[in-house]
Fold:
Amino acid sequence: MPMRATFRNAPAPGGPSRLMPLAVVGSALLAVASGVLFYYASRTAIRSPAGPVYRVTVREKSCDPNSLVAPAGRVAFEIYNASNRTLEWEILDGVMVVEERENIAPGFRSALTARLRPGRYEITCGLLSNPRGSLVVEASAESEAERQKPPLKAFIGPLAEYRVYLVQQSSTLIKEAARLAAAIRAGDTDEARLRYVAPLLPYRRMDIVAGRFSDLKNRIDPVADYLEKREDDPAFSGFHRIERALFAKRSLDGLQPVADALAADVAALGARIRALRLSPGDICSSVERQARLFAESQIVKGESPYARNELVEFEASLQGMGKALDLLSPVLQGLAAPALALVQERRSVAASGLESLKRAGGYPAYDEVGSPTRDKLAGDFRAFAEAVAKLGVLLGPE
Amino acid sequence: MKSMRFLTALAAALISAGLARAETVTLDLVGPISDYKIYVSEKLDKLVEDTKAFTGAVKAGDVARAKALFAPTRQSYEAIEPIAELFSDLDSAIDSRADDHEKAEADPSFTGFHRIEFGLWTKNSTDGLNSFADKLLNDVTELRKRIVDLPLPPEKVVGGAAALMEEVAATKISGEEDRYSHTDLWDFRGNFDGAYKIVELVRPLIAQKEEDFLKGVDDNFNRINATLSKYKEGEGYVSYEKLSEADRKVLAAAVNKLAEDLSTLRAKLGLD
Amino acid sequence: MRSRSRHSEAGGSVGNNHGRRVFLKALGFAAACPFARAAAANADSERPEPRGRVTDAPVADAVTASDRTPFYGVRQAGVTTARPANGMIASFDVVAESIDGLERLFRRLTERAAFLTSGGLAPVADPRLPPPDSGLLGPIIRPDALTVTLSLGASLFDDRPWLTAHKPRRLSRMARFPNDALNRRICHGDLALQICANTRDAALHALRDIIKHCSDQLVLKWKQEGDVPVLAPGSGAPAESARNFLGFRDGSANPDASDLDLMDRLVWVGPARDEPRWATGGSYQVVRIIRNFVERWDRTPLREQERIMGRAKMSGAPLDKPDAGEFAVPDYASDPLGKLTTLDAHIRLANPRSGGDKESLILRRPFNYSNGVTNAGQLDQGLLFICYQADLEKGFIAIQNRLNGEPLEEYIKPVGGGYFFALPGARDVSDYLGSALIAAVREGSSRTSH
Structure:
């Protein structure tokens, strides 16, 4: 049974006066509300030795329950796909993806553990066109303890450095997306095919962060399978739409607005990146999330069915993950040297696993990579993700 | 159920207002620190490019062109001096003066900008300067490489604003920096621009709480700009020797006051 | 860990100097050595008696103009002697082209120093002649705890082929460290005099006297005077190190000068050292004129100042023992990552306290100087750093090499000074400073010490 959370009357820094009377009134209400909400939540939580697991059943057009309450910290979910389409399930903070599971097959369950800060979140419910549910995360003793931790001053330098990296990748992405759009506008299919990978790679290097802006991700990098009408869905845009046109259909028909939209979207992404505030815990969990996505769906399934250049994309993604970890390492050394060593070791295994697939002329097309190899690679990324998860525990929900 | 939703919404609103948005001042610094790193990278790129042109002119024996490029090339270095000084070996090789060395101008360890300046202005020649030109280009290229790979310590970035003023107050206001060419006013511009950049980047973080402080800082920068602009010539400035005694005192006092004020900047941002 | 004096039954533990002093004061002496009475009475004592911790702040009413520091002894005074409030280094070029000339110079210097340090009537002459004494101290020259310590620079030996073979093994011309901006006008010298006294006037009087008497053989190169803050009388507080111009106590980790065995190991050249025999009883002297950028220091956050130094400012306590006193020893082994005392803190770099041979210790005996105003309109103030050690390379040079690149370098700039060798003492009235060196040259003896 989760501990009953107590609410602190802590005013928001920088603007206490306005919130104080509200908070005083509110805390009384909260005391009542929390009891009620907990009762409600406890009915949906499955008790397990490791703590409560929140089970959500996803149906054709809805989720049950559609409203959840959980305490801050590590929260375990179990998603049961009761529909007949493969789906993904996401926890969103505004437009930011906090956690997600992809590729949940019909009839299958998927377990998911998220590190959640107090706040109000939305949950996607199956198909992206379905209405969303809500998840309220309350302050817990654990999250309050985290808040008391010493300031993150030591991380400022590395976090700043990582932001510089992202901004630089973003600049390259914007520049190359513009050139791709120009080639498409000029009607030059061959040129466009040559220019296709150049913006894709910086995007992949920013994967762990870019993939969390769900609105932009759904425009820049949607996967046909999660759309109602798949490739024919009007929401099928971005890289994969261009990829299909250039490498499967070999035609530039109707592609110009798609390319222009991509150029506009990556510019918007650049602005979001500049405004983004990441904590070390955020970065850690993002790396873990991305590695897990690779392990559990993307490596086995493949994501780029037309150009089949997954390997070079995975490599870029791993580069980006590595960069983030390398920048945080010196600060984490003191806190978590063994956990860090394990992370770097597993990452190195994954990297050389990829590297070993390289041939004289570069990476082969992904359809030449057979199931056993894919499974091994997925295993490498899974082990990497697990190591990162352990590291993340040490950083806490912040 | 409606009341349930209401309570949920109320609870959520209160929670998010009171707790979820609690931001630490320190993470607010990540944006300015990384923007400063980008600024420094841009300055270093320009420094390397300009140094190529400057040393090229020296090696080509083009005294007039080398003299014309000396001061503008140095401005990029002067703007980011506190960061460059993190590598004291390179700072010494690039920017030391004759009196840092026991044998002064004749000392073999006297290299860099001022060694070349000495040859160009006192001897009006590029003779014997080729090796110093090559070394300078190598050193600034190495400096850029080292800084690109270095996460900038936040205290050094923010403290750099005060450090720039200390530089001017201790060694530059007397015109001893560019003692052969008297191009010190160009250097001042670089130093002040570099300090101001830092203030601009952290301004949003303290604008509300430190209105008076920032006003004082802005007033001093304005005073400096107004005084320096009297000596503008083309893209740069006239000789330091033309700086009037009265204006020198105005600059010295403004620089000292800025050093005092900017020395409190780190504390205002929660940095040690 | 600093070794304890074997004569410490009066005091005991490290922080208990107060106890020891009170006990000894009861004996009638402010000296730290329990054998002080015997030593003071016997001017021919083997070892000049050290009075108090060398870098303790002088106390205003504890000193008088009649204070006399014995001049004669196996070792010169002014090294392990407690430092008075004023001091200076004066560096000279020597005009002496033969061994006779050098002997003459040494004898005259000895004569002047012996007189000035014991005091007496100022000599008078016919008023139609220039007065032999400057008159600065009036008709009666009081000793005022004056010490005159004579030391020789490498150039004296290097420029005289008949002297070169007798140079102390480790004596070299001071070379630039990375943060130095050496001004040749205030560096090096053939011969240096360290002149210290309770008052500045006594020291200046001595300098002027010596210059006047030796003007044919000594040409003044540079000098730097300095002083240390004097404590108010009767505060009853335990002895503390005097403060420097950074506001910090200076000398907290100084080896205990009353520990005579320690001094024999750390400071004095002994017969077992690989040095010329004449050098026994001498010591290597390092002088560094170190400018402090005081305006900038005063604009530095207090916590940062303390972090840079490795000590609390007011108490002098090491940062890992903030409630202890100035003389507490930091425990770096318990702080390997430098969380309490950063790894590049001044005191930690200077003395990592890792024990064994790695410990290179020096005896510091500095003064603060305040000259004029720089061209930039800033104060020209700083530290006249003076230290003594038996081995120049293992002492100061090793320490400074560890300090290279320290954060304190933003605030300091060594601009002058030099390396010298302080001569053994003049044993008695029949002896003179440098006699063993002169004898060695005359005998043409070899450089080895066996």
